[in-house]
Write a structure and sequence with these properties.
This protein has no helices and eleven strands. By secondary structure, the chain is mostly beta strands.
Length: about 120
């Protein structure tokens, strides 16, 4: 099995890849844009206690979310699901979604997308 050169790169820190928002933060770990992955995007998302990220859609990829800590109410289309630490959620492409932190601490999760470049479109 031959590996492409970018597949052996490692991101040692999040310098320049961390995005602060009023509701929390996103730290991008792997993607085509970063240059260390071709067909996947990987990140870590923190949602502050009592906050939520905007409802949005990824038309070009699926999203897999693994909750490391905290409690979230996650909307997907017209459904809502309760997530606790250790839960995994798969969101299909083109499904509007967002997460509300309803717990007593920050919600910390790993997110992966089935594309090296993920689109992000606010609903509405």
């Amino acid at each position: 099995m031959s590996m492409k050169p970018y597949s052996v790169l490692a991101v040692a820190d999040s310098d320049g890849k961390r995005v602060e928002e009023d509701w929390g933060s996103l730290t991008w770990l792997a993607s085509r844009k970063i240059g260390n992955a071709e067909d996947i995007t990987l990140g870590r998302v923190v949602i502050k206690k009592g906050c939520c990220n905007p409802r949005h859609i990824h038309y070009n990829c699926e999203e897999v979310l693994y909750l490391l800590k905290g409690t979230l109410e996650h909307s997907m289309g017209n459904k809502k699901v309760l997530l606790k630490a250790g839960d995994t959620l798969v969101i299909g492409a083109s499904v509007a979604h967002n997460a509300v932190n309803i717990g007593d601490e920050e919600a910390d999760m790993i997110v992966a997308y089935s594309g090296g470049i993920r689109d992000y479109v606010l609903e509405g």
